[in-house]
């Protein structure tokens, strides 16, 4: 166990003197200095000067956590922090700057966070070491160098191609806008903190505050000690503010072994939110049921010259959730991801999809590395050390590519099926096949021409193929299979009423354009 400096002993003593309980727990400091985030040679003098608080980057580990001193049974309250040790939004609102903000009714990016920040900055500056909260301020991470808004250009490079880069820039700008807006109505903010210190306070609050109900009123608070628990899912503890005892409590949901780290769940989130708000990305961000909450935004464009422009626009803008939306989404995504997955990703399908008349251009990231390169990089802990910014960036971009790959497989499967159905329909129109609709959604195909295979057989063959994603295959087969049946019904109806009613046969795919016309 690493040596725990005095400031932790002072912090714990202060909590105990004020009625807090956490006897079964101990704080630990992990051996991962900030220097592992950026090697000394990568930090130029300018950046050192700009460090939010003047602490040498090599001096401190900001990665601490909470461990069980002894085994903790389920349903044990292992942390109890009295109300007087909490910093709440209302305390920030009662400061001179807080009152000025309220009076001016400023429209701020993160209003609740701002009041917590204001209290922290104001109290620390005004009362210094005589502040009641001084022992707490002493243990707050001094630099927060893991937060992407503080990353060096070298570290940001690792995110090349990711949408997160613009979100990081937007976040930095939003904080600056808030700082300048408050300065206008409360110029004394300028004597409390610099913009960098304001940014530090914003990220400190953002990564440590709890949303609570106190006296029936929703608020946010900084809760000393409770904010030392790191994130892990599925959750092993739960927290609440107990109105009866007027204490913030953390309770175990299962037994926790002696020595084990005690975690809190920060929720089910996409890695970009973990990274932006907490400065880390989860290596395997997957729920117990296999669901992965990672997301990638896609920007889609429908060409106004497209013959189906109006239909498509309506489709995409009314948020339709009917059965085909998944398959159509997949088709568009196929075009979106085509050629955007980085070197080495097979792109055989991309060309034909992108050459279609519908979606001309999709603005998507272009990554400099492939997903397999990312995976190999993550094996190399010397270059990508645990808890380093470089590693977290790598985890983020690898996750984005996993999402894109998933949709690529989905869209390729859907488009393969659509092409097959379109060929089948053509053969039926030309009289080369006779498709009969049977019970249980099955079909019988009688061939008079050459080389026509039944859709059902194609699906069966694909099911045997280990390279096919089976959930995606089933989804596409069900959705497109039922559309195929509909299409054959309409075609048969049209053929039976060929004299005079031909033009009246409705086709859900607008067969003048072909099945894939929608794509
Ligand atoms: C509420 S604090 C937890 C205590 C913090 N480790 C400390 O030393 O002050 C949240 C911060 O802890 C770190 N953290 C929490 N969970 C983590 C995880 N699973 N992996 C990496 N860092 C984590 C991140 O820096 C995050 O912003």
UniProtKB/TrEMBL annotation:
Do you know which CDD domains this protein is assigned to? SET_LSMT (cd10527)
Q: Which Gene3D superfamilies match?
A: set domain protein methyltransferase, domain 1 (3.90.1410.10)
Among its keywords, does the record have RNA-binding?
no
GO biological-process terms attached to the record: methylation
What parts of the sequence cross the membrane?
none
Identify the keywords attached in UniProt to this record, alphabetized: Methyltransferase, S-adenosyl-L-methionine, Transferase
| UniProt protein name | SET domain-containing protein
GO function terms (MF aspect)? protein-lysine N-methyltransferase activity
Report the superkingdom from the record: Eukaryota
Q: Which stretches make up the SET domain?
A: 51-267
Family matches, as InterPro entries: Rubisco_LSMT_subst-bd_sf (IPR036464), SET_dom (IPR001214), SET_dom_sf (IPR046341), SETD3_SETD6_MTase (IPR050600)
Database matches in PANTHER family:
SET DOMAIN-CONTAINING PROTEIN, UNCHARACTERIZED PUTATIVE METHYLTRANSFERASE
């Amino acid at each position: 166990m690493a040596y725990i400096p005095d400031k932790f002993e002072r912090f714990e003593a202060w909590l105990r003197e004020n009625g807090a309980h956490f006897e079964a727990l101990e704080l630990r400091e992990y051996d991962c200095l900030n220097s592992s985030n950026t090697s000394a040679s990568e930090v130029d003098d300018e950046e050192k000067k700009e460090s939010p608080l003047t602490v040498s980057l090599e001096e401190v580990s900001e990665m601490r956590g909470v461990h069980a001193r002894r085994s903790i049974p389920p349903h044990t309250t292992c942390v109890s922090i009295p109300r007087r040790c909490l910093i709440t939004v209302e305390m920030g609102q009662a400061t001179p700057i807080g009152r000025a903000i309220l009076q001016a009714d400023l429209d701020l990016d993160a209003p609740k966070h701002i009041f917590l920040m204001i209290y922290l900055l104001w109290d620390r500056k005004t009362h210094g070491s005589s502040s009641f909260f001084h022992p707490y301020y002493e243990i707050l991470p001094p630099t927060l160098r893991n937060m992407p808004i503080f990353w060096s250009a070298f570290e940001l490079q690792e995110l090349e191609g990711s949408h997160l880069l613009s979100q990081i820039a937007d976040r930095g700008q939003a904080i600056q806008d808030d700082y300048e807006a408050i300065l206008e109505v409360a110029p004394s903010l300028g004597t409390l903190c610099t913009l960098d210190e304001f940014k530090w306070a914003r990220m400190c609050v953002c990564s440590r505050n709890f949303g609570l109900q106190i006296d029936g009123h929703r608020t946010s608070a900084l809760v000393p000690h409770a904010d030392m628990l790191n994130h892990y899912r599925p959750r092993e503890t739960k927290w609440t503010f107990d109105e009866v005892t007027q204490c913030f409590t953390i309770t175990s949901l299962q037994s926790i072994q002696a020595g084990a780290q005690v975690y809190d769940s920060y929720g089910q989130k996409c890695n970009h939110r973990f990274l932006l708000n907490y400065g880390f990305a989860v290596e395997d961000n997957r729920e117990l049921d296999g669901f992965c909450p990672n997301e990638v935004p896609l920007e889609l464009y429908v060409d106004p010259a497209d013959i189906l422009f109006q239909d498509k626009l309506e489709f995409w803008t009314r948020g339709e959730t009917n059965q085909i939306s998944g398959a159509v989404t997949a088709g568009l995504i196929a075009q979106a991801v085509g050629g955007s997955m980085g070197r080495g990703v097979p792109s055989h399908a991309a060309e034909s999809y992108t050459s279609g008349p519908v979606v001309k251009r999709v603005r998507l990231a272009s990554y400099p590395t492939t997903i397999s390169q990312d995976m190999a990089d993550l094996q190399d802990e010397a270059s990508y050390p645990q808890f380093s910014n470089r590693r977290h960036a790598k985890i983020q971009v690898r996750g984005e590519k996993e999402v894109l790959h998933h949709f690529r497989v989905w869209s390729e499967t859907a488009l393969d099926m659509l092409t097959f159905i379109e060929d089948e329909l053509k053969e039926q129109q030309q009289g080369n096949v006779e498709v009969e609709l049977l019970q249980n959604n099955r079909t019988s195909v009688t061939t008079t021409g050459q080389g026509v295979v039944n859709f059902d057989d194609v699906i069966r063959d694909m099911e045997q193929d280990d390279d096919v994603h089976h959930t995606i295959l089933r989804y596409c087969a069900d959705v497109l299979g039922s559309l195929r049946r509909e299409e054959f019904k309409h075609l048969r109806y049209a053929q039976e009423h060929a004299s005079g009613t031909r033009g009246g046969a409705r086709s859900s795919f607008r067969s003048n354009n072909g099945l894939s016309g929608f794509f």
